[in-house]
Automatic annotation (TrEMBL):
The gene is LOC113738264. Residues 10-140 form the VOC domain. The keyword Nucleotidyltransferase does not apply. This is Lactoylglutathione lyase. InterPro entries: Glyas_Bleomycin-R_OHBP_Dase, Glyas_Fos-R_dOase_dom, VOC_core. The keyword Lyase applies. CDD domains: VOC_like (cd07245).
Amino acid sequence: MAAAAAKGVSLNHVSRESSDIQRLAQFYIEVFGFQRVESPRFEFDVIWLKLEPSFYLHLIERDPTTKLPEGPWSSTSAVADPKNLPRGHHICFSVSNFDSFVQAVKEKGIQIHHRTQPDGKTKQAFFFDPDGNGLEVAGRSEE
């Protein structure tokens, strides 16, 4: 079967559902520099965030009737340990200041697992947002 021939495809947004979208928004603003943008009105609360030039994160109030508990559902283990994330579900951001970024995240008290790929240059850091969603940051040494 041939693949669909979509044209002009680009990533529009990633959404995260949370019981505390204000807390989650503050995390992404402080850690990654997202900015709040105008959000549409729904029958539930939403916060739209933008990371320049064109990546959007939609934070959506968790449906209180849902039966699923909140995460860390992106981990390969039931324990919220970031070293379990490299093969799990996560969003990855690239940064040009990897070492200082990792240090800043650690200074916020966020548990982080980082490693260097066999090429000796590419670095990865794994951690969770306040709701247990897996995050990765990739970069190179700042030498």
